[in-house]
Amino acid sequence: MNRDSVGVYGCPIPDITPNIDKLATQGLRFEHAHVTIAICMPTRAVWMTGRYPHRSGALGFDRINKDVPTLLESLHDAGYHTGIMAKVPHVVPSRGAAWDVVVEASELGVGRDPGKYYQHSKTFFAEVTKSEKPFFLMANSQDPHRPFANSQQEKGRLKGKRKDPHFYTKVSRTFDPQEVPVPGFLPDLPEVRQELSEYYASVHRADEIVGSLLKALDESGLASNTLVVFTSDHGMPLPFAKTNCWRHSTITPWVVRWPGVVKPDSIDREHMISGIDYTPTILDAVGLSPLPGLDGRSYLPILKGKAQDNRDVVFTSINRTSGKNEYPMRCVMTKNASYIFNGWSNGEKVFRNESQAGLTMKAMKQAAKTDEEIAARVQHFLYRTPEEFYDNESDPDALHNLTQSRHHQKQLLHLRSLLMKQMIEANDPVLPDYKTYLESVDQ
What we know:
- The protein is α/β, with parallel strands linked by helices and 443 residues long.
- The chain has two domains: 3-308, 3-Layer(aba) Sandwich (Alkaline Phosphatase, subunit A), CATH 3.40.720.10; 315-354 and 385-442, Arylsulfatase, C-terminal domain, CATH 3.30.1120.
- The protein has 14 helices and 13 strands.
- Helix 5 (114-131) packs parallel to helix 7 (190-220) and helix 7 runs antiparallel to helix 11.
- The model has no long low-confidence stretch (mean pLDDT 95).
């Protein structure tokens, strides 16, 4: 889910996410929060370890290395009643014994049925109340992942192996393609609007899942003593968002509600946080020791209304796709600029990922036959260049690569040095290729 698909983050569709919006009024929303890696499984590994992907072993759809400790185990060992809903194979799959309650996506309408999330949440909270234990529940909505609601892709699956007409959950609201916003990084084509209308139906259903969970929590009587975090695992599963390092790939809605600690209806516009900070923050908040080998750090002071130093940059990455294709990318992001190194880009290798499976890329390729501007966008998406540098303020959609701009060379060199320093400190395996590339451009 893109950050700006949420109402409080600027989505112009009326009441697209009323439950998330309400949650934001009850807590703190971050304006500069990013996932560390914009792919569903590895981003969850980052959340659970507080480590960069190459330091946990979960580069793509890989399991966390056996010697890497996790948040889940730390909480379970401390006596927490632990539960997970949907996306089960994507969250520390090798540590299954640390889950007390596992609710598979198949029990939740393929992770898309708000009513089923409500019922399973009610059951979970009842168990918590009976046990008198603290709890940790990770509830994953599989909306707005493809196949989008009411799409031909979804209907095709119904006609295939899964013939049960109730396999996918009906949506309570659909959208006319003409009423949905088209992000600036995509062209305004009829097929793009059609796919976005299906995406937004899925966004709305995801919001209903959030509402179902929070309703069950309220009814349990546990809400006043529960820390709630809402976030997305990456940008929308469309070209130029998911599985990439552009700003709109990684910037995420991030809302924290903590009654009695977090000031309601507050907004943080100063600090940058990212996925590696989740585990250290949760452990800090509940008074448990930090895990060894953390790359992230706790932002608990921010939750308590205090300023925190050195929160002006985040580092993001991509390593490999679900198809096991290697596309090493590294990014350093500040509030006003982003710099990306595409270690795989050689002018010949073609980028392939799941986001190209829908209507949008097909429409872009067709339009590219007669539209030079769209043709250039398709070319860039498929082949890239080794370096990309964007002004996030004037060009948030990353349309104008400034690496060759004479006026931006000083800033470019600064971001290169920040990325180099971070890669050295994190013992990044892409470092040798980055050094070789910089040597080639300096000659």
